[in-house]
Input
Amino acid sequence: MDDTILEAHSLEAGEGLIPQANWLELSETLQKLSKKRKFPSIWCSGCGIGIVMGALIRAIDHLGLDNDKVALVAGIGCTARMPGYLDFNTLHTTHGRALAFATGLKIARPDLKIIAIMGDGDALAIGGNHFIHAARRNLGITALVVNNAIYGMTGGQYSPTTPLGGRATTAPYGNVEPPFPICDLAIAAGATYVARSTVYHALELDKYLAEAISKDGFSVVEAVSYCHTTYGRLNKLGTAADMMRALKDNSIPQSALDRLTPEEKTANTKIVRGKFIDIQRPQYTQVYSDLITRVQGGEL
Amino acid sequence: MAVKLMQGNDAIGWGAIAAGCRFYAGYPITPSTEVAEILSRELPKVGGKFIQMEDEIASMAAIIGARVGGIKSMTATSGPGFSLMMENIGYAAMTEIPCVVVNVQRLGPSTGQPTAASQGDVMQARWGTHGDHPIISLSPISVRQCFDLTVKAFDLSEKYRTPVILLADEIIGHMREPVDLPDFKTIKIFEHKVSESPATYKAYRNTPDGVPPLAPFGTGYRYHITGLFHDQDGFPTQRMEDIDPWLERVNTKLDKHIDDITLLEEDVQSGAKVAFLSYGASARTARHALKMARAQGKKVDMLTLYTIWPFPEKQVEALGERVDRIIIPEMNLGQLAYEVERMVGRKKVRRVGRANGEMVTPQMVLDAMEA
Output
C-alpha cells in the first residue's frame, strides 16, 4: 500500500492490508454492525462508497450506539444501497424522499438516531426540496451525502454537482450547468452542523460523522467521492486509484485555506475540507414536544 | 356525545382522532384543507403530532415514515395533490405499511376547478400508482359516514397492511349535517401483535392469511424495508422463488378477506327490473331519484357502494342477474360504470355521468329509466 495513504491513516504497513479470506470475521466492529450475509456489495470494485460506509460504521461504533436505536433511511441510487448491508433499522425508500420519510420517522420516534444516506442526485436534484426544508426545520437527522458528481446507477448522467464542462452520458459535449455547493446550501437553509471531507481522508469522515450523529439538530456531512466507472471513464480520469489520488492532490483543509491571501482564496479551485458550521438551534421534535406540553397544560 | 353541526371534513378529522391516528402530514389544498386545520388543532391535545410538509410527495413519505415508527398516520389532499402522492402510495403498497389517504375529490384534470365537486379519481385511486398492487378505497355519503369510514379506513389499513384511500368528494366534505358521534372509547382498531422473537421475525413472512404482523422500528426488531422486490426478510431480491410467492400473497390478501372489506347497502324491491347503483355524493342523488320513482309506483332496486375498491364483484354480479338495467349516476364520465359493465355486460348499464362540477340531478337518473 502507498506509504502516504498509510501515513494519512496513522497505520502500520500490516494493518493497512485487507485480509482476503476472513476480513469480516476478523473485525469485531463489522461483526457487530453489518449484516454479514449480505456481502459482497453491489458497488463496483474501487468505488468510494464502501469507504464512506466504513467511516459510518466506525463513527457509530465510536459513539457506542445501540443498534436498535439507530435507523438508516435512504433513497435510490448506488449510495442509497448502503443501509441494506448494515444491521440497524433500515428503510430504503423512493428516489429523493429519504429525508421526507425520515421526517415522519423522527417525529414518531424522537429517541432514534436517524441517518439519511443519499447520493448527490438523490439529495439535491429530486430530493432538493426535502433537503432544504429538513434543514430549515432543524430536525434531528444526520444527512450523509456521498457526492460523486454523477448518477452512477443509471450509467453516468450529469447530476446537480457535476463540474462545469464535465462529460456525462447526457452531457456529451460537456456539462453547461454550474454545480450546487452542497455545504453552502445546507448552511443557508439552516443546518446546525455542516462538514465536508473526501473518501481519501477516511478518518476525517469518521470524525465528522461521529460529531454530526451526536448533534441534536439537522447535520450534514458531504463525503466527496468519485465514480471511476462512469465519470472517470467519460472524462479520461484514469483508475479508481488515480481518482483517489486526485482527491488528495485537489483538496485542502479549511485551516490551510485560512492561511492564504484573499487573492489566493478567491483563486482556489480545490475542494475545501473542514467543519463549516456547528451551532445550536432549537430542534424540531423538542420544540413540538414542548408545544404539546403547553397545549395540554392549557397554556396555548 | 351531544349532537353537533359539522362538515364532512371535520368528521374525517374526528374519525382520525377516534381511530388513534397520532400523526398527520399534509399540504394545503382545496377542498380538503379543513381536515388539516382540525388536526393541527386537535392532535397536540391528545399527544399527537401535526406537520405541514413542503409538498404532497413529502406528506405521503412522512406518514409512511411515522407508521414505520409505530404511529398510526394519515394525510388528506385533493386532485393535484393526490397525483403527487401516487409515488409513495405505491411504496406503501409494496412495503405493506398501513396508512390512510383522504382524497376530497375536486374537478380535474390538472388544476381543474378547486371548489367544484367531482368523483373523477375513482380509477386513479385504484390504478394511479404504477404496477399491480392491492388497494382499498372507501367512499362516504354523509357527514356521519365520513367519521365512520375514516375509523374503518384505519382498521382495514392496519389489519391488511395496505394503504386505504378515503375517496370523499367536495360535496360530502363541505356539507354540514347534525351528527352524534360515538364515544371514542368504544372504538376498536386492529392492533398488530408480534409474538415472534427478533431472531425469527420476518416482516414479510408468507402467512396463510396473507398478512404478517408488523413490528415498529426501534423496538428490537431490526429489519430491512425496501420498495424493491424483496424476500421474506425484506431484502432486495431478483430470485423468482422469492418474487412469485410475494406476488401471490400480496395480490390475493384482500380477496381472502373480501367479505370483511366490502361495505355496501342494498335496498331491494321485490320484482324490480331496474336498479340504481352509486356511491358518494351521487348516491344521494340516486336515493332521491329512488324515492321519486317509487312514489310513481315504479319498482327500483338501489345498491350503494361504500367500498369501491376492491370492487364488490359478487354483489354487483348478483344484481346484474336480478335486473335488466343498472343506472349509474356519478360525477365523472363513467369510471365506476366501467367496472359494472365488466361484471354485467354493457347492454345492462346506463351511465349517467357528469364531469362539469355540477351534481347529477334526480331527473337525469329518472330519464335514464326511460331512455
